[in-house]
Amino acid sequence: MFFIDALIILSAILSSLWVLLQAFYFTRKEITCKHHEKGNSSVSIIVAIKDEEPSVIKELIENLSSLNYENYEVIIISDDKEERFRELSTLSRPPNFKLVRRDLPRGRKAGALNYGVSLAKGDILVFLDAEARVDPDFLVGVSHHLARSPALSLRLRVRDPKNKLQRLYSGITEFSMNSLFRGRYLKGLPVFPNGSAFAIRSKVLRDVGGWKEGIVAEDLEIGIRLYMEGVDVEYVDDVIVETLAPYSWKDLFIQLKRWAYGSGQLLPYSLQMAKKGLRGIEGAIYANQWGVYPVFLVVLLIAGLLSPLFFSSVYTWIGSLSLFLISTLVFSVRSNTKEYDIRIPTLMISAFIIGYISGLMKTGFNWKVTPKKEVSEDETWIPLEVNLVSFIFLGSGLIAMQYEFLQGCILLIISLILLVIP
Questions:
Q1: Where does the Glycosyltransferase 2-like domain start and stop, copy by copy (predicted)?
Q2: DSSP per-residue string spanning 314-337
């Protein structure tokens, strides 16, 4: 039936287009700034924490204590239980550091950030995660750039990658910074902040209403809102925040699923950007990229399930699949991947499908901190959700084989590929 064929083709174009756009955005041309002039604006660094190891917070305090900047404060907002907070309270910290606990932790991370903002005295607000580490001149660079911009998206870099997964994650992060942040910024496209490395003028944040509480992807939401309010976020290459990569495949799966959930949750809101023309349409695609990546495979899955009712051409399947694979190959070549592991894309596809659909349906979401220390990794681990997705593709393939043999074989191959995840 023409409708099913058209749906398959359109979904293949959408998924492939976003993959190709990332390859097109990628640039090695750094955005350089010869000299940072130290500003005199007061700065408040705000960090929201929950279930973090005391050693992580101790290292954070030590790192932020050595900043080469006079007028700054650090506010750490804890949503921990009383026992953990009492343990954290014993950590030594300078007078300009505040460690406070919310008795009623409402509004998820955004609620904690808003609480920190209510305590902040700085003209500049900097938001970091607990594992963030910066160099001594970090605030000099932030204040320099914020003298001319209302908000900054700072460069993320993975520090000390140990195992293969962390090296792969580090490479993905570098490509993302060079493509989705630097590349898009140089082409005049809207830049969305990363909650792990974000700075904004206090007045600007308060003018747009602060953080949206209860949202899983609070950084994506505020990025959309800043764009809709006409506030341009500048991306800077020369102010770097070092972070950690997940230690295990399980931790990576949970993190990817959280990103996708937050994107799906914001779909109706993010589509409003399309009102602002081509830049807005591209921004809407960016905001929903976790749903865009797997949409082609999801449509194939649906086509297989509906094969008893609706016919789809084998040529449509082969042509669309060829387009998707070619775009993936171009992306791989452009990203200059030095290490590769088939488990990365299959893990992403499964996490994105599950997370994005869950976000669309607004199912319950339990936030879990990504571990900041090495753990024993179970190489045989397979997430239950991936098993479920794989079996759905298997069922779709078995149904399709009775009516459209080749299409069914394609779905069975996808089902088997999904099971290569550890």
A1: 125-321
A2: HHHHHHHHHHHHHHHHHHHHHHT-
Instruction: Output the pLDDT for position 342.
Output: 75
CB 234 within 8 A of CB 145: yes
What phi and psi values does residue 411 have, to the nearest 5 degrees?
A: -65, -35
User: If you write DSSP's letter for every residue of 364-422 in order, what string do you get?
Assistant: -----PPP-S-----TT---HHHHHHHHHHHHHHHHHHTT-HHHHHHHHHHHHHHTT--
Q: Would you call 93 helix, strand, or coil by DSSP?
A: coil
Bridge pairing between strands 124-128 and 197-201: antiparallel
Say if residues 111 and 81 touch (Cβ distance below 8 Å).
no
Q: How is the beta sheet containing 233-243 ordered, strand by strand?
A: 97-101, 72-78, 43-49, 124-128, 197-201, 151-158, 233-243
> How far apart are alpha carbons 127 and 130 in whole angstroms?
10
Residues of the chain whose pLDDT is less than 50? none
What domains can you pick out in the chain, each with its CATH number? Answer: 2-24+279-418 (no CATH), 32-247 (3.90.550.10)
CB-based burial label for 288 (10 Å; 0-12, 13-18, 19+):
buried
Q: What is the pLDDT of residue 10?
A: 95
> What is the distance between the alpha carbons of residues 45 and 128, in angstroms, rounded to a whole number?
7
DSSP-assigned states of every residue in 18-83? HHHHHHHH--------S-PPPP---EEEEEEESS--HHHHHHHHHHHHT-S-SSEEEEEEE---HH
pLDDT value at residue 285 = 95
Return the pLDDT at 104: 85
Count CB neighbours of 395 within 10 A.
Answer: 15
Q: Which residues contact 250 (CB under 8 A, 6 or more apart)?
A: 377, 378, 381, 383
Beta bridge partners of 47: 76, 128
Q: Write down the H helix ranges in 154-287.
A: 164-176, 182-186, 202-207, 218-228, 249-265, 267-270, 278-287
Residue 414 neighbours by CB under 8 Å, 6+ apart: 297, 300, 393, 397
Nearest-angstrom CA–CA distance, 176 and 26: 8
In whole angstroms, how far apart are CA 354 and each of 122, 259, 347, 374, 384?
40, 11, 11, 26, 11
Answer whether 317's CB lies under 8 Å from 407's CB: yes
pLDDT tens digits for range 371-390: 556 655 555 555 677 778 88
Rounded CA-CA distance 281/270 in Å is 9
Tell me if residue 201 falls in helix, strand or coil.
Answer: strand
